[in-house]
Amino acid sequence: DDNYMLLSTENTERMRLTSTGDLRFNSGYGSVATAYGVRAWINFDGTAGTIGTGRASGNMDAVTDNGSGDYTLNLTNDMPDVAYAIAGNCIETGSTGSTDNFIGVKRANNYSDSIKVGSVRIATNGGADRSCFVMIVR
User: Fold this and answer.
1) Mean pLDDT of all residues belonging to the chain
2) Who's near 85: CB < 8 A, 6+ residues apart?
3) Cα-Cα-Cα-Cα dihedral of 87, 133, 44, 130, to 10°?
4) Residues 72, 73, 77, 81: is their CA dihedral positive or negative?
5) CA 71, CA 11: separation in Å to the nearest integer?
6) What is the DSSP string of 47-75?
7) Is residue 113 within a helix (H) or strand (E), and if so which, with residue range?
8) pLDDT at residue 11 in the model
9) pTM value?
10) pLDDT tens for residues 73-128?
11) Nearest to 75 by CA among 87, 88, 63, 59
């Protein structure tokens, strides 16, 4: 068997690295399953003059501000394909309090214009987003 396994003292499988490079682990749910990692993430201020890599990030080259609540996230290392998921939210703050804004893919002309291996264009349902938190999972 070309799989590597780590076992607990009770002889229960806890982690496996498969011959195809998949990391699988049992974190207490009763079985070993493939781990899907966050490939990129960022925390940024959408109202900043220059966003760059934000307050903190991983695998993000820069964020382009395309207009109020419309951003392009540029990855440092490309994704293997466009079959990834994005998730996150933005918080709009102002004198009247704060509003949570959801994010989604911003479709320009068609879907392939927005999701690429090296970038994704997102939009929020608000504007003037001061705190945005986004992750890409694959």
Assistant:
1) 82
2) 136, 137, 138
3) 110
4) negative
5) 49
6) TSS--BT-SEEESEEEEEEEETTEEEEEE
7) helix 111-114
8) 72
9) 0.76
10) 999 999 999 999 999 988 876 555 556 677 778 876 666 678 999 999 998 876 66
11) 59
